[in-house]
């Protein structure tokens, strides 16, 4: 009999153990993700208040950024701590007219001129104040760069969540406060319980000291709380068991829904390409690199020759760009890591959504122009697709394909939007074949 | 009272040991511990199996859950993207398919640089957008894993990989020192430039000869017609008489003739005229199945029949009558002769015989009928077969005599496909240098010293002249997959010419076909169009010219043949799918069932029922066939209705031994059984049959032969149609309170409302010739797996499209005098010479689909465009839908056919990296355990709609077509939007409503979106078709 019982118990225990493992491991994954989502705000936050610095930042972006960066040599030198290397008046006159300074024989000016292959820096008609603000901006940036660990975005695992935005960050702060308050309250409560217990014991001791006690009091004094009774009680066992099962099931269901979901997936790419820089700061059209996004099912990951349209001139020395050169020299294509993975059973066509539907890239890909390293913004689940198809009004404007359909639709359902699904957009064979 | 006898269960019970008592209380014995017997006999007890499995199960579950992170997938862009390639967008290139005499101008669909589908080129006025099954399938042959990846040299019995420079040098040296004749043996070459290359190559050697032969030769036809095939034009013929010529099948130019043939076969109320087609033949061919009047004759009678017709025509036109034996079946022959004479100038007689005498008579019949210049285009003779049997036999004899010093085989495999293969093998031993251009180590190449593999045609440049003045180009659609080299380039290299064949080709065209003006522009246009027509061409000289036979000599020859016939006659024929067996290693062609017998993966002995009864032969009995020349083969019998009495038939193209894992040892090779004489090869012989007692099962996709008087297919005579088109189709009515009504008026279901599109299909049974092009087209478009012979036997073939073939029966329900059961049994029996009807059967996309209502998981649903959608990722494989489908068109994936070793050989398109390149990337490869079926090519519908939406317009009619409709060489399948009143589908449905349009199993009221049109036969011999 015993052996039989143990046989049954063994797998049960095993399940328990395994379920704990999975639950905890998934927690662990969740935590990792959340950790990587914090830690972003730090850099942007510092010195945000200063209007001068902000003005400087804007000026820097518009005038200087195409040739200068803080930490690396582009066309011109890296500008980190430039205020320490040269006095402000020197900088002002240099920015206004560098060639004049070179011609006048300024030692520092000639040295820079020679160092950069006698390439002239263009003259900028900026006021003293503006130049000062730029220098100020560089000063502040240099300081933060010194405190925060520097590195290329790809090495920076913590980069992703510039997307959380101010709203998200605020919410995070509030919940942090709540946590603190909660913990404080709990601590206070525990202290109170302990204090109360001590008081109760003191009272009991006092009562015991007395000889003339009546029945009620005696009962009170002799009363013993038997813990073993509680945990041996069937009711408690059942309740605890039930709670355990319910919690476990809930977690299991939650987790299974999440199986295979890659929202937030942010793999490290072989080349630290930044959409933030290209699409965000330089405002390069998506279609310039993703050549078939309006034409084809696939948006097309740009081939190296597209990179070379610009990078045969710009930033040729950057180690990341060198990787493209190496790929071309070795005749081996660059193996990017695919971020957005749809299952094979689902057919998705970019051009249907971009060209016909008129949907912005950001609707599905999120604020791609702010991403240093691309991550998967949308869950890409069927529910997510279907939801949009249910709610999104069709882009029928000026498209003769839809003219008659819109008419029929409007006659039947006055006022209701002509959504994708009202044109059959939630039928299986629209995506599965 | 007799004492009850007590039975003991065993000694244990008798002894009643305590152990037994204990055990008898336990209904279920304890689990036996698993003992590891192998562990040095110690009987060591290991973990009980079930516990082990439990543990395993849990750990697998845990491991899966823990490793739910998707694997890292790479996205690898081009390094330097070619300008014309956009990932996800198909590019189309015009090219040409010419193999084995089958010419098609084609368009090749490539995705990301890989050819994935082939369709017909509408710009060609010969094939006019049609494409044969073999042409469709050749895209898979490109990715054949058996192809040689590099040139090889034979050292002893081993083939050693070689480098091109090294092998070129060796070959050049050896050819330089050759002692004797240098011979190049090829099958028909219709490329003017290639012929020029060969001439140039030959000029380097003092003694060079180019021998041309065809595996299935028409050299009799060539000899009777001065070395070329007359330019038959079936579209001009009102009366067609064919003696054993399978012109809709593998005879000469399948698609071209089908296109021509069908122009006079489509009837409408306004034009109720069609040609009449007489077929005299031994075995029921695809062409015979389409004939209005079919007469089974023995092969030896063919000459007699032709001569009898000749005499009748001669009488009618005042010519000389020949003295030949009488032909028995005068009724049909008289009718044919009468009609031919009545339709002079619109009459055509053809013969499939390889006997010069017969073909000479046929030529003269056509002359007497005034066919030359009308139904025979004398300006454009056909060049697709040029092989000369006599020459080939001379070559074999020369080899055996030891006068051949070197031989080069180009597209030639005589060891497999020549009747004198034994002599080829013995002769080759006496040849010093043997080179083969074969793309694999085939039966002939295995004996060669050097194999310098040719490109696949889809990797090559080439030109073609299938008819005089009709030029066609082939261009590469993929860069060579292997280290192969085009044969022409090899020949150029060996003759010391450094130009590439591409330049050579261009120069040849510039010199010969330039019409003046800018050559580069003209060349670009020709490459773009794939064809260049109306060229003044010098024509092709063939070697098969001999002095024409006189009528008297022909008559003598025919008398001789008729006299010589004795015993059972064997007719050797070609199937339209496998042809001569060149592309036998293509699984699509192997699994494509024979249009008539519906057999796959085998050839067989087709015998008439009379002979089977006489010899007590059952279907699948293994029969030993001994031919007049002493050769013996064994193969299973198939009882073939329509097979002439006293004859049997076997198809060539099977029994390959060195073709690759798909074709090797599938069926038997029947070439050696063909009779040869000094004039050539005759694909007939007299044979002896013996039962071996063994059995070999033939995998047929349809074993039901008749329609048992059901309304599944409908047909009527042309006379009835002319009288009243409204009465040719029987419509079923159901009884209602308001009298008999069409079933669609009584329905339990609400009707769907289609606002946008309503896709529908019309299949004209009158136009369908049963060729099977649609089946291969569908397989190619929709990634349907190939399952192999055993699974076909298990009724698990996966083609979404099938062509049902029904034979007529002599017994009918209302006219039979037999009892009920006997009547039904008799109705199952096809007639001895049945009428045949083909019915393409695919998912009918019912509006009230029975499959949709039974799916417990809503995996099959109806779309707002009338499609019956199948969602594979939702399907759990209950197969309720398949059981509830009245048309039996749903297919279940019994296995994972991809990445499955069991199917690796047959289904290499899903089991090798190379094969997978052919898969259509827009269609899912289905997993095990799900149902699949025709989707009306929803991917093409979606793509077409998207194209229209991008251009902000409605889709044009004909822009969106399914793969089957696209492939059909006779336009029997029309697909379109029934919502669009101007679409062809809508027009036909309006026109044929109440006349020829009917739904299969209309009484079920499933309201299919596929409509069939009643077949009309022009078979009333009492009226002359003029």
Automatic annotation (TrEMBL), chain A:
Its cofactor is heme c. Heme c binds at residues 275, 278, 286, 289-290, 307, 340, 361, 364-365. One of its GO terms (molecular function) is electron transfer activity. Keywords: Electron transport, Heme, Iron, Membrane, Metal-binding, Signal, Transmembrane, Transmembrane helix, Transport. Residues 1-28 form the signal peptide. Residues 51-142 form the Cytochrome c domain. CDD domains: Cytochrom_C3. The chain crosses the membrane at residues 177-202, 235-253. Binds 4 heme c groups covalently per monomer. The keyword Signal applies. This is Cytochrome c. It comes from Adhaeribacter aerolatus. The gene is actA.
Automatic annotation (TrEMBL), chain B:
It comes from the Bacteria. SUPFAM superfamilies: 4Fe-4S ferredoxins (SSF54862), ADC-like (SSF50692), Formate dehydrogenase/DMSO reductase, domains 1-3 (SSF53706). It holds the Pfam family Fer4_11. Residues 759-789, 834-865, 866-895 form the 4Fe-4S ferredoxin-type domain. CDD domains: MopB_CT_PHLH (cd02784), PsrB (cd10551). This is Quinol:cytochrome C oxidoreductase. It comes from Adhaeribacter aerolatus. The gene is actB.
């Amino acid at each position: 009999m015993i052996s039989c019982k143990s046989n049954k118990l063994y797998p049960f225990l095993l399940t328990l153990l395994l379920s704990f493992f999975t639950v905890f491991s998934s927690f662990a994954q969740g935590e990792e993700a959340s950790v990587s989502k914090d830690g972003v705000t730090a850099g942007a936050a510092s010195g945000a208040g200063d209007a001068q610095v902000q003005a400087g930042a804007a000026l820097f972006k518009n005038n200087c950024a195409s040739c200068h960066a803080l930490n690396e040599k582009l066309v011109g030198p890296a500008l980190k701590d430039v205020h320490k290397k040269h006095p402000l008046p020197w900088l002002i006159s240099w920015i206004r007219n560098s060639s004049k300074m070179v011609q006048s024989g300024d030692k520092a000016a000639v040295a820079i001129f020679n160092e950069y292959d006698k390439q002239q820096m263009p003259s900028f008609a900026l006021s003293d104040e503006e130049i000062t603000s730029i220098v100020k901006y560089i000063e502040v940036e240099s300081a933060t760069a010194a405190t925060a660990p520097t590195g290329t975005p790809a090495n920076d695992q913590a980069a992703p969540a510039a997307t959380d935005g101010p709203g998200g960050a605020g919410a995070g702060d509030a919940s942090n406060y709540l946590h603190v308050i909660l913990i404080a309250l709990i601590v206070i409560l525990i202290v109170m319980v302990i204090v109360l217990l001590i008081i109760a014991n003191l009272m009991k001791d006092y009562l015991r000291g007395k000889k003339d006690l009546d029945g009620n009091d005696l009962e009170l004094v002799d009363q013993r709380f038997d813990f073993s009774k509680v945990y041996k009680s069937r009711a408690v066992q059942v309740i605890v068991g039930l709670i355990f099962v319910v919690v476990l099931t809930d977690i299991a269901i939650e987790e299974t829904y999440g199986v295979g979901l890659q929202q937030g997936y942010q793999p490290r790419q072989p080349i630290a390409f930044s959409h933030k820089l290209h699409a965000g700061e330089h405002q390069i059209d998506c279609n310039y690199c993703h050549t078939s996004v309006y034409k084809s099912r696939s948006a097309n990951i740009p081939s190296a020759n597209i990179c070379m349209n610009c990078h045969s001139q710009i930033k040729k020395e950057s180690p990341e760009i060198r990787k493209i050169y190496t790929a071309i020299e070795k005749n081996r294509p660059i193996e990017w890591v695919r971020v957005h993975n749809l299952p094979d059973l689902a057919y998705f066509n970019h051009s249907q959504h971009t060209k016909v539907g008129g949907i912005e890239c950001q609707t599905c890909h999120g604020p791609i122009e702010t991403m240093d390293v691309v991550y998967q913004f949308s869950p890409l689940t069927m529910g997510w697709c279907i939801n949009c198809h249910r709610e999104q009004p069709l882009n029928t404007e000026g498209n003769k394909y839809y003219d008659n359909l819109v008419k029929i639709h409007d006659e039947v359902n006055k006022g209701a939007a002509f959504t994708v699904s009202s044109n059959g957009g939630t039928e299986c064979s629209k995506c599965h074949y | 009272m007799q004492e009850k006898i007590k039975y003991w269960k065993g000694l244990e019970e008798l002894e009643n040991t305590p152990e037994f008592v204990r055990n008898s209380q336990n209904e279920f014995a304890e689990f036996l511990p698993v003992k590891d017997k192998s562990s040095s006999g110690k009987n060591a007890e290991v973990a009980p199996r079930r516990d082990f499995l439990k543990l395993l199960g849990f750990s697998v579950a845990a491991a899966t859950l823990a490793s739910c992170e998707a694997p890292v997938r790479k996205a690898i862009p081009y390094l330097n993207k070619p300008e014309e390639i956009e990932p996800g967008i198909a590019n189309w290139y015009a090219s040409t398919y010419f193999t084995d005499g089958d010419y098609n101008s084609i368009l090749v669909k490539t995705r990301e640089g890989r050819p994935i589908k082939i369709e017909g080129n509408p710009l060609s006025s010969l094939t006019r957008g049609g494409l044969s099954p073999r042409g469709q399938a050749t895209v898979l042959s490109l990715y054949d894993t058996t192809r040689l990846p590099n040139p090889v040299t034979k050292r002893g019995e081993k083939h050693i990989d070689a480098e091109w420079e090294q092998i070129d040098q060796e070959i050049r040296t050896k050819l330089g020192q050759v002692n004797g004749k240098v011979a190049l043996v090829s099958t028909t070459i219709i490329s003017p430039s290639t012929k020029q290359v060969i001439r140039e190559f030959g000029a380097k050697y003092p003694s060079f000869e180019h021998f041309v032969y065809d595996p299935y030769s028409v050299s009799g036809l060539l000899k009777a017609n001065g070395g070329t095939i007359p330019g038959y034009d079936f579209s001009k013929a009102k009366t067609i008489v064919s003696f054993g010529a399978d012109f809709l099948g593998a005879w000469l130019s399948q698609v071209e003739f089908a296109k021509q043939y069908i122009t006079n076969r489509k009837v409408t109320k306004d034009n109720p005229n069609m040609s009449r087609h007489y077929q005299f033949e031994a075995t029921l061919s695809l062409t015979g199945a389409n004939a209005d009047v079919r007469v089974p004759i023995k092969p030896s009678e063919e000459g007699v029949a032709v001569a009898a017709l000749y005499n009748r025509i001669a009488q009618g036109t005042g010519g000389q009558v020949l003295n030949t034996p009488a032909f028995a079946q005068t009724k049909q022959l008289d009718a044919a002769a009468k009609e031919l004479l009545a339709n002079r100038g619109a009459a055509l007689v053809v013969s499939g015989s390889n006997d010069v005498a017969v073909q000479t008579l046929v030529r003269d019949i056509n002359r007497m009928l005034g066919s030359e210049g009308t139904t025979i285009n004398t300006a454009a003779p056909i060049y697709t077969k040029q092989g000369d049997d006599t020459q080939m036999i001379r070559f074999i004899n020369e080899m055996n005599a030891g006068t051949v010093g070197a031989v080069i085989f180009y597209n030639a495999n005589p060891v497999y496909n020549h009747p004198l293969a034994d002599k080829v093998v013995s002769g080759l031993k006496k040849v010093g240098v043997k080179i083969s251009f074969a793309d694999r180590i085939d039966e002939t190449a295995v004996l060669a010293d050097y194999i310098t593999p040719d490109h696949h045609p889809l990797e090559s440049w080439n030109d073609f002249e299938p008819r005089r003045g009709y030029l066609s180009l082939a261009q590469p659609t993929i860069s060579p997959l292997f280290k192969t080299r085009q044969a022409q380039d090899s020949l150029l290299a060996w003759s010391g010419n450094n130009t590439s064949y591409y330049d050579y080709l261009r120069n040849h065209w510039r010199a010969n076909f330039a019409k003046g003006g800018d050559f580069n522009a003209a060349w670009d246009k020709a490459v773009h169009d794939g064809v260049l027509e109306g060229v003044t061409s010098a024509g092709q000289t063939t070697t098969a010219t001999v002095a024409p036979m006189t009528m008297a000599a022909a008559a003598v020859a025919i008398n001789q043949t008729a006299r010589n016939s004795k015993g059972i006659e064997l007719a050797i024929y070609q199937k339209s799918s496998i042809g001569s067996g060149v592309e036998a290693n293509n699984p699509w062609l192997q699994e494509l069932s024979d249009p008539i017998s519906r057999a796959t993966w085998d050839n067989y002995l087709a015998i008439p029922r009379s002979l089977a009864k006489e010899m007590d032969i059952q279907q699948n009995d293994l029969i030993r066939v001994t031919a007049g020349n002493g050769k013996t083969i064994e193969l299973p019998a198939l009882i073939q209705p329509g097979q002439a009495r006293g004859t049997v038939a076997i198809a060539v193209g099977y029994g390959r031994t060195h073709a690759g894992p798909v074709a090797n040892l599938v069926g038997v090779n029947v070439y050696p059984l063909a009779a040869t004489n000094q004039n050539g090869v005759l694909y007939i012989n007299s044979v002896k049959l013996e039962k071996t007692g063994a059995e070999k099962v033939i995998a047929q996709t349809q074993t039901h032969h008749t329609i048992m008087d059901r309304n599944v297919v409908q047909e009527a005579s042309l006379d009835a149609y002319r009288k009243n088109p409204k009465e040719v189709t029987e419509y079923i009515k159901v009884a209602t309170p308001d009298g008999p009504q069409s079933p669609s008026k009584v329905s339990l279901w609400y009707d769907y409302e289609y606002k946008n599109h309503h896709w529908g299909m019309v299949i004209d049974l009158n136009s369908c010739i049963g060729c099977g092009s649609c089946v291969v087209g569908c397989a190619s478009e929709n990634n349907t797996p190939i399952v192999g012979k055993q699974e076909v036997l298990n009724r698990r073939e996966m083609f979404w499209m099938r062509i049902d073939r029904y034979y007529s029966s002599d017994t009918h329900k209302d006219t039979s005098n037999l009892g009920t059961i006997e009547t039904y049994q008799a109705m199952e029996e096809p007639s001895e010479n049945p009428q045949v009807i083909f019915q393409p059967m695919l998912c009918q996309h019912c509006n009230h689909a029975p499959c949709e209502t039974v799916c417990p998981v809503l995996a099959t649903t109806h779309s707002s465009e009338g499609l019956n959608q199948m969602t594979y990722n939702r399907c759990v494989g209950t197969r309720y839908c398949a059981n509830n489908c009245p048309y039996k068109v749903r297919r279940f994936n019994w296995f994972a056919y991809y990445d499955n070793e069991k199917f690796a050989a047959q289904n290499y398109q899903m089991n090798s990296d190379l094969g997978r390149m052919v898969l259509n990337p827009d269609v899912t490869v289905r997993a095990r355990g799900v149902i699949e079926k025709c989707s009306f090519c929803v991917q093409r519908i979606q793509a077409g709609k998207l194209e229209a939406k991008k251009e902000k317009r409605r889709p044009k009619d004909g822009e969106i077509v399914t793969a089957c409709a696209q492939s059909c060489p006779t336009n029997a399948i029309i697909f379109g939007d029934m919502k669009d009143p101007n679409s062809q589908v809508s027009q036909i449905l309006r026109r044929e409503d109440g006349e020829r349009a009917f739904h299969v199993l209309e009484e079920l009221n499933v309201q299919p979106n596929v409509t069939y049109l009643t077949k009309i036969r022009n078979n009333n011999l009492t009226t002359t078709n003029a």
